[in-house]
Amino acid sequence: MSHDLSRELQERVAEAAASGTPLAIAGGGSKAFLGRAVQGTPLNVAGHAGVVSYEPRELVLTARAGTPLREIEDLLAAQGQMLPFEPPHFGAAATLGGTIACGLSGPRRPWAGSARDHVLGVRLVNGRAEVLRFGGEVMKNVAGYDLSRLQAGAFGTLGVMLEVSLKVVPRPAEEITLVQERGAADSLSYLAELARKPLPLSAACHDGARLYLRLSGAASAVAQSRSLLGGEVFAEGEAFWRDKIKEQQHAFFAGALPLWRLSLPPAAPWLELPGKVLLDWGGAQRWLRSAASAETIRSLAAAAGGHATLFKGGDRSGEVFQPLPPAMLALQRRLKQAFDPQGLFNPGRMYSEL
User: Fold this and answer.
1) How many Å apart are CA 111 and CA 282, to the nearest integer?
2) C-alpha dihedral (320, 321, 323, 326), degrees to nearest 10
3) Cα distance between residue 307 and residue 16, in whole Å
4) Which end of the chain is more exposed for a tag (fewer CB within 10 A), N or C?
5) What is the per-residue DSSP string for 29-69?
6) What DSSP element (H or E) covers 97?
7) Dist CA 45 CA 238 (whole Å)
8) Contact status, residue 27 vs residue 45, Cβ threshold 8 Å
């Protein structure tokens, strides 16, 4: 269904600005568990839906923020195309706006780029109830390009997104998954070696028991790499990456222990942390289920050149994202002031001070 609620949403923001009322922006609610709790009047954008334009030959799609993610993926699949950053849904009601706002990317991210990398343009309502457009619908249009990308991973704290333009890509001609029997620490060293070779890798993870490698591309390149790498072909590879890893339905993600996301340099060594670890993104993303303190986890991640986020569960009354250095926090405050001077949008969702 296609519904343009731009005027209604703009009016709601204008009313909130006039009264100084904070707004809690919501879409399908599939990612409501992320970040910190927001105290504000609900502003639901899920009804603001529909594909505005799609040019398969130009590899560009523009859709309203409330458009269901599944609808977009089905539309692209019918043309043999896909979203290159392979975003997780975390629920049937996932929307395009929520996907970009949370900035999440799936197993393909290290090789295909992140959600932010594929944002071409954004139309939004700022804290002054002005409708602004940043970027465009072609890669060569760089006017406001970085401002549109700022919305990816901002968790709705900089404005109410109305439309998003994205770069899309053709689906690979061939795709297989190989499984190897390796330990986690050994897999990290092995993946570092593979990173120096021209292989058509599109996913690599170790689930605590085995190493999984996905190859995507031309049939000849996939066949040659399969012969070089060895291992068994995993018949359930497509479902494994889609459901078990991307949508976190693997047994690793079950349970009550807090789930941490560690973002590290791919070549970072194995970290001795209490709990269970699942390696993704060739070792650059490490999921940790642990009862260890936030200080312990974050200090080890920082020492390895990365950062840690309390992704799900645990004590969410404090900071769930890695605390920012003073200079970076000052920059974030200036951005917030420029887009949302009264602090109307999702206050405290990312950091208590923002």
Assistant:
1) 10
2) -130
3) 35
4) N
5) STTTTSS----SEEEE-TTSB-EEEEETTTTEEEEETTSBH
6) helix 96-102
7) 32
8) yes
Q: Which residue shows structure tokens 């392979």?
A: 86
For tokens 């009601």, the residue is 93
Give the residue carrying structure tokens 């706002």.
Answer: 101
Residue-by-residue pLDDT tens, the chain, 354 positions: 789 999 999 999 999 999 999 999 999 999 999 999 999 999 999 999 999 999 999 999 999 999 999 999 999 999 999 999 999 999 999 999 999 999 999 999 999 999 999 999 999 999 999 999 998 665 444 444 478 999 999 999 999 999 999 999 999 999 999 999 999 999 999 999 999 999 999 999 999 999 999 999 999 999 999 999 999 999 999 999 999 999 999 999 999 999 999 999 988 989 988 999 999 999 999 999 999 999 999 999 999 999 999 999 999 999 999 999 999 999 999 999 999 999 999 999 999 988
- Least Cα distance to 156 among 310, 353, 3, 346 occurs for 346
